[in-house]
Specification:
The chain is mainly alpha-helical and 129 residues long. The protein has one domain (16-119): Winged helix-like DNA-binding domain superfamily/Winged helix DNA-binding domain (Arc Repressor Mutant, subunit A). Helices cover 57% and strands 9% of the residues. The chain has five helices and three strands; from the N terminus they run ααβααββα. It has helices at residues 21-28, 31-40, 47-53, 59-71, 93-127; strands at residues 45-46, 75-79, 87-91. A three-stranded antiparallel β-sheet has the order 1-3-2. Strand 2 (75-79) and strand 3 form a beta hairpin. Helix 2 (31-40) crosses helix 5. Keywords: DNA-binding, Transcription, Transcription regulation. Residues 19-117 form the HTH hxlR-type domain. One of its GO terms (molecular function) is DNA binding.
């Protein structure tokens, strides 16, 4: 029996509609958390450094993403109390444990994007007019 077929430690089962672990998946399953968390894995970054590292994210969306990740204990915000403001973001221990899984997912996507593109093209050629 695989982890998804049965309950995990503590009786959690993401396949169960009522399981609170689904909220954890929803938190990290979005496009931006999937990119921001691994970007913070090497160490603390300032806001502008994150904007440069995670190409395509807007300042507004980055702020919202960081706030939600901090609210859920995955990211820590450190305000150095200086002028001009110096704020850094880093992963908490919980966030670091998640980043290992997400980095593996990133490497999978980098290795298999061509196969996915080819599968789409094959499907479209076979089933679309």
């Amino acid at each position: 029996m695989t982890m998804l077929q049965g309950a995990a430690e503590g009786g959690a089962n993401v396949l169960s509609q009522a399981c609170p672990s689904r909220a954890a998946l929803e938190l990290v399953a979005g496009k931006w958390p999937l990119l921001v968390i691994p970007a913070l894995a090497p160490g603390p970054l300032r806001n502008n450094e994150l904007l440069r590292r995670v190409e395509g994210i807007s300042q507004k969306v980055l702020s919202q993403t960081l706030r939600e990740l901090a609210r859920n204990g995955l990211v820590l915000r450190e305000d150095h109390g200086t002028v001009p403001p110096h704020v850094e973001y880093r992963l908490s221990a919980l966030g670091q444990s998640l980043s290992e899984t997400l980095i593996a997912l990133d490497r999978w996507a980098e290795r298999h994007h061509d196969a996915l593109r080819q599968a789409r093209e094959d499907f479209d050629a076979a089933f679309l007019p």
